[in-house]
Amino acid sequence: MERRPDAVLTVATPADFPHAFAKAWHTRNGAAIAALFAADADFVNVTGLWWRNRNAIAKAHDYALKSFFAQTTLTPGVITTRMLGAEHAVVHCRFHLAGQTAPDGSPAKDRSTILVFVLEHTPSGWVAVTAQNTDVVPGKETLLNAETFQPVDYRPR
Questions:
Q1: Is this structure's pTM higher than 0.70?
Q2: Of 3, 41, 97, 156, which sits 20 to 30 A from 53 (CA to CA)?
């Protein structure tokens, strides 16, 4: 059963998926990103927003890519792939994000994230059935909610 319409980008191998995601990102079109996902896919962003289908993924990314991510570049770095049989794979990719706009309109500093994709092979290529994005906070171990939500490190110095 085909789980998506014809996509702008066809993904031939799981290891190609992060590059296809970055290419779709640079179109500034949420539908291009969503076309890489199954119709019933999930996407959890860095703050825990959980989009539960391709349309929600498209809408959220389209808004972001046309506003605070409008000038960004997303560059794939280290990619690992773990096959879960012939038809499924888990792909981790460390991405570098530059060019985000802060709420006051000023330029934000660069960020690194790790995106995890669970992929399924379909007749038209590999599609994501779920994705999870996590910000990398150097030198920190976890997050703490104490008046403000902040990254912390408990390790002795």
A1: yes
A2: 97
